[in-house]
Amino acid sequence: MQSQVLILTGMHRSATSLVASLLERAGVHLGTRLLAPNAQNPRGFFEDVEFYKFHENALHARGQNILVSRTFTFEPTPEEHTRADALLAARAQYPLWGWKDPRTSLFLDFWREKIPHAFFLFLYRHPFDVLLSMMRRNEWYMLGLWEGLEAWYAYNRALANFRAQHPAQTLLCSSYAVVDDLDAFHARLQDHFGLRLNLDAATREASYQPNELQRASLARATEKIFQVVHPDAYALYQELNQHADFPAPAFAPADASLELEALAHFSNALTHADNAARRGLLFALLGLVQPAALETYLANQARELADLARARDENAAQRDAWQNTAEERAQIIREQQEWANARMSDLEKLEAHPIVRGLKKLGQV
Prior knowledge:
By secondary structure, the chain is α/β, with parallel strands linked by helices. Helices cover 61% and strands 6% of the residues. α5 crosses α6, α10 (220-229) runs antiparallel to α13 and α13 packs across α14 (291-352).
């Protein structure tokens, strides 16, 4: 029998690990060797190490990390085709298997070509919540908040495009909707994909606590400002909600402070501003909505930059030391060569001396 394959993906910090933990407990084989848990994901990432490495290597080979630009495209090499085929062949014996990796969002057409019968489960989350979560996580590459929003757009644009082309193979879900109504999500997996999973109450309680997926309390003024900060991400989130199988539930808007209302009024003048102005507006928005998170983020980034500067200076000092050592050794070699040349010259002069030449003749008699 042909295996059933379920591929779970979405932008980083969109609850993909949470949903993957549910799927694994419910009977989907997600890999024999998974990434180890850490402080950011104490329950685990539920990412097959080999698929993770495949995607990471493919990104690095093209000068990218997970915060890709929206222009990223993947043209696989023959070696990448061979490696991917080997990964799939090694798992073909499992009746129901799959993998979870946010990076898969950037390789969807490639994997569908490899597994035409695969099912794709897409999760999306409000870009502002994703940004706040990435700030709290503070990975080394998060040296720019704007790049985080650009990556959110790149990942989710890929999901929306794939979903439009292959609706029968795709389930598009808001992360909030999944955790708010796991029973309906379970039923949809069965109806849409024909998957028979053991996703019962005990499985849910072992994998999820209601406070684990944080949601920013956004006022209407916040949404207006965010629409100016990154209009493409704002519009795409609306598009995802419009076409999702499980759209985001409606939240009662939070009350806006006078400062937030003033910033919303000011942002109206920045509708046609350049990205530098939008970046400044983003920092102002974060400072009003999540001042503690922004302060922690900036402090962490200052430490990271200081560490990078120290490492740069240490490397420069080591390079200078090696260069000085190389120059000293080169000077010794030059002096030894000059001494040897001088000795050879003395020897040649000695051999040309009449007495030495006469002695050589006598020795030959």
